[in-house]
Amino acid sequence: MATNLVQIKGTEIPTDGAALNVANRLYIDITDNDNDLSDITTGKWAWLARGISEITPSWQEKTQKMAYYDGDGHDDTEVTGKSMQLAVKGVRYLGDPAQDYIDGKQYAIGSAAKTRVLWINNGMPVVSACTLTAVTPTGGAADAQQNFSLTIAFNGAPKTTTGKLTLNKSDQAHVFTASVSDNTPAVSPTGTHANTDTQK
């Protein structure tokens, strides 16, 4: 099939100035693999985007306050633990691979509710084992589209790729396989994130 259409100049997602949320990407590994945190290429990554209107990250922190004699009566605060989660909201789209997979987890408990998540945050790939919690794949007013929401709770410390991540189209729409280039760091020496190619 020929490719004879291109994006109109000026409609691209900005790479400088005010950051837009639509620049970020969220994928769920639909292979039920929450154990492999060394190789991203083993996953089948479904893009969680169709029908999704909000993705909100939050960090829950455990802190410990201590007062020391050299603090002149003021506390010193240490972060002793941290957990990250993504709250996802939108409407239900039947036939979407990511939503259909999550729908199948609404009654899951234990390891059945676990998989891996890939969140590309302003170009930086963040990969983690996760638990799909508060899965609500339906509901709402009778004359409205069905609601869809869940919270993706990260398990353990997240990781990033050793090189440039590329997500390649598979035979299934909105499902990708991953490859990593060994010669481009995930974060450049200048401290900025290397470009991440998606949906090739």
Distance between the termini: 15 Å
Oligomer: single chain
**Average of pLDDT:** 91
Radius of gyration: 20 Å
Structural class: mainly beta
Side-by-side strand order of the widest sheet:
3-4-7-6-5-1-2-9-8
Please render the helix and strand layout as text.
Blueprint: E1 25-29, E2 45-47, E3 52-67, E4 75-91, H1 97-103, E5 114-121, E6 124-136, E7 147-159, E8 164-169, E9 175-181
Antiparallel strand pairs: 1-2, 1-5, 2-9, 3-4, 4-7, 5-6, 6-7, 8-9
Descriptive notes:
The chain has 200 residues and is mainly beta. The chain contains one helix and nine strands. The chain has one helix spanning 97-103, and strands at residues 25-29, 45-47, 52-67, 75-91, 114-121, 124-136, 147-159, 164-169, 175-181. The protein has a nine-stranded antiparallel β-sheet. β8 and β9 (175-181) form a beta hairpin. It starts with 24 loop residues before the first strand and ends in a 19-residue tail after the last strand.
